[in-house]
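Milestone M4 deliverable, item 7.
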Amino acid sequence: MQKLPFLLLLLFIATVGFSQKVDVKYDKKLDFSLYKTFSVGEGEIFTPEGERKFKEEELKSWIREALVQELKAKGLTPVDTNADLHIDFVAGALQQTQFEDWGPMGYSQSPDPMGQGSSRTWSAEYSQGSMFLDFIDTKVNKVVWNATATVNLTEEQNIDRLINEIVAKSLRKFPVKSKKKK
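Output delivered:
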């Protein structure tokens, strides 16, 4: 039973690199099937210059291409001007550090007020990537679909494939048809 907290700690550290969350918000009254055309903006990358593993234009290109492919598969047509929807995106990665204090036997914080005893503190450093997508109705200049994705990155990940997965998850329910009143 004493090994359980240690195993949970190892499991947490192992999953830090694989957790992925996508949160989607949209106008539930809107019939998205009415949108037929779209354009994708230039986008913005917020990863600090010294921490970038890829060129900014390369990342933007991957995101734009993933959006175009996903929306074309859903029946929308990309256009340069007069689009029904305009998609803006912001993406990047920042270094994160997580700290945890485990007390005696890994169950709680140390009862010793001086912090001596058998408590253990550990930290895990990881890179957290984020992508924000805003779908703007160009006729009313209003955001009608918003997706926020966060993922803990690892060195082994194929970033191009990861971008495709995140965009696909973000648009899984798109287009949403409004519920008709009976």
